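Example 4.3 (complexes with small molecules)
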Amino acid sequence: MNSKLLCVSLLGLFFSLSAQATPFNGYIVKVKKGSNFLTSKAVSHYGAVTKEAETSFGTFARLETSKGLSDKAMMALANNPEIEYIEPNYIISIESTKASEAPKDAMFSKQWGLANNGKNGGIFSSGVAGEDINATRAWEITKGATGDKTIKVAVIDTGVDYNHPDLQGQMDVNLAELNGRPGVDDDGNGYIDDVYGYDFANKDGNPADGHGHGTHCAGVIGAAHNGIGVAGVMANVKIVAIKFLSDSGSGETIDAIASIDYAIKRGVNVMSNSWGGGEKEQSLLDAITAAEKAGITFVAAAGNESNNNDSSSTYPANYEVSNVISVGSYTNAGAKSSFSNYGLTTVHVTAPGSAILSTYKGKYSNLSGTSMAAPHISGIVGLLLSQEPNLTPAEIRERLIRTSVQTTKLKSASASKGRADAYRALTNQ
Ligand SMILES: [Ca+2]
Ligand SMILES: [Ca+2]
Ligand SMILES: [Ca+2]
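Answer. The structure with calcium ion bound is encoded below.
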């Protein structure tokens, strides 16, 4: 689904001309600074303001209407001098496929994405040894062996099981809130009780994961190297749990932009985004651009539609901002995963994404998807920043593309024409 977008005014209004409906829930309105529009009668004529997001890059609201706004109404709102733009509040969701429970005693030996021995990729296919991110070799050279506790990675997803034995020591803890008073914003950052992160789906300080997907992504990035369960790409990392996808795995754009804003405020180095959907939106582009200005790398799953993203855009992976790294998926045989989107221009790198073992809600599980490929890259970016903290997101993206191992099997999958290699990225070769 890729409907045409038409710019109809210099205000930057975009709206969909497609009759084919991409699901959305109300509209996102960005108001001009100092505007009273959201509390005015003018807005209640169209519907009710049911959510607001006050961000470092502007004030956004969700306008709830009983039915879709007509083109005429959209035009009238777009031309309102108090509004910067209005667009549908698209529904977005996780980028992963089937789940199957893994043995509870599963260990590093099953993690083909980190160290592929040709036999540890699950029951679906026989693997090829060495087709992996070369993690073990990278770990030998990274400062602090395997990452750095000063590097913060935001997992923007369904939340994180922060009590999971493989994750509890890996979380970024807001000590003012941990040691503070319940119901009180102890550190005055505008969020009550945000110890491990924040839940923008339910608007509270508890980003626990009622789904499992976000916990899986978090484990790929940074499950503890503690002798139990699985190992993350980074052993030393601080994970910030930012939830905007509900326990059913879907959420709204307005909460995604609030999540990005929060991650910026929390001072993260990397945002890991294993979700997609909707269409091109100015508000999400504004949010990602704000992250770019803050020097934060925005890793995004390329999507699971088997599409060529060069001709059929997937968002947020396709936003043309220098900090976006779009990640496709490959199998333990080193071939593009059948579900993975691809594109020589718009997909930047590929990483393991088929039958990936990681942490799950209270347990461990195998999942497949570009959702699983993206956090491998988030982890590599984290390792790289542990060694070279001054790299810009654009330099990081260039490094990952250039140092990938080119393979025939992946020559059409991404700009890298191969698979990302943590060791080569860290040694810049
Ligand atoms: Ca707080
Ligand atoms: Ca508190
Ligand atoms: Ca572990």
